[in-house]
Structure formats: structure tokens, C-alpha cells
Amino acid sequence: DSGVTQTPKHLITATGQRVTLRCSPRSGDLSVYWYQQSLDQGLQFLIQYYNGEERAKGNILERFSAQQFPDLHSELNLSSLELGDSALYFCASSVWGDNEQFFGPGTRLTVL
Amino acid sequence: GEDVEQSLFLSVREGDSSVINCTYTDSSSTYLYWYKQEPGAGLQLLTYIFSNMDMKQDQRLTVLLNKKDKHLSLRIADTQTGDSAIYFCAERGGKLIFGQGTELSVKP
Fold first, then answer.
1. Is the peptide bond before A8 cis (omega within 30 degrees of 0)?
2. Is A49 exposed, middle or buried (0-12, 13-18, 19+ CB in 10 A)?
């Protein structure tokens, strides 16, 4: 158990819908990262937050957004969902910067 | 640009050594990592090596780094069926860049 929690574990929704994925980092970790894992794209970095501020952006679509709240939990919002958004979404946390990242168990999103 | 490449599959017999290889392009990488992903689970950090080191050993795991060739390897000694998983190497220059993952299959 890495100490990073993600909810929900599974999510099934329809195209065009909007969903919110939630992540709670390890106690004391200030950085949160979001990744997307799909069969064709592999593991892709989406976005990083550090202590509430956006720190780095990767291959994140404009339909996707994230935020980190004062209690350091983070949410990833996915809107106007398409079939191709079906993937595993991982959250990771670290103490600071890009130091050792600890991954949550992931949220499996299925878009029908 | 930044890129990390791994072979996709490796099959070994229980008790043999496994060697998983990785090449990367970012010469400014400071840390290189190996993560393990078991079926249906998240990524678990196995080990990491700082870029000024050549080798790191941790129980059954040995990491070798050839910085000149930008080549990283993970050797698992006495491979067990429980080692069957997908292994990702990752480099950290700016952000963390992952390879595609190598699926290790251990046959009894």
C-alpha cells in the first residue's frame, strides 16, 4: 500500500459526459501528479500540482483539467468524454519536486 | 525530444536471472527509476539510481547504468513466479518520462 488513495476504482460512463476523479496523496506529500495509461499510448504524464499550484503540464487535453485543494487532495476533471478516453488514470504523490513518486491504485475509466 | 524505450516482452524460467533493458535520450537525466506494475494494480517503485552511479544492488535487484550509451538495465536474480509483472523504466530530467513497459513472464 503506497499511501495514495484514488476514488472511484472503476467508472463507466457514456460519450459526451463529464467525470471527476479524486486523489488523496500520502500524508506529508505536497506534489500530486496525474497519469493516463492506455494500451496504445502507454503511460503518459498529464499534469503536476505542487502545494496547490500547477507545476508542470504534459500531454493533457484541453477537455481535461485538474486542481489541488488546500488539504492537498486533487481532482482530475474529464469532460466531453470520447471513447478514446477509456484508460487507467493514476495519481502519484511525492514530498516535493519530482522526487520519488508513489502511485495510487488507479481509476479505470470506461467510456461507452 | 525525451524518449525512453524498452523491449515489450521477456520470458524466463523460474530460478533464472532476468535482465530488462532500457535506453533513454535525455542526457540531463538526474535519476533513473524502475517501477513494477502487477495486474490490476498501480505502479510500485522498485529501485532508482542517481545518474553519477554505475551500479546499484538491492537484494535480488541489480541496476546497471551506462551513461555514455544512455542504457539502463535491471537484473533480477533467482526470478520467481511472483516477479511476473510489467516493469517500467523512467527517467527524470524535467518531468518523469516512462518507457512502454516490459512484460516479464516467469514460467515454472
1. yes
2. buried
pLDDT in tens, B28-66: 778 899 999 998 888 998 999 998 899 999 999 999 999
Backbone angles phi, psi at A32, to 5 degrees: -130, 140
**If you search the block for the grid coordinates 516482452, which residue do you land on?**
B9
For residue B86, pLDDT beyond 70: yes
* Cβ <8 Å between B42 and A48: no
φ/ψ (deg, to 5) at A51: 50, 45
Which pairing describes strands A107-111 and A10-13: parallel, antiparallel, or unpaired? parallel
Given A43, A56, A106, which is nearest B88 (Cβ)? Answer: A43
In chain A, residues 35-94 whose CB comes closer than 8 Å to chain B: 42-43, 45, 48, 56, 58, 90, 92
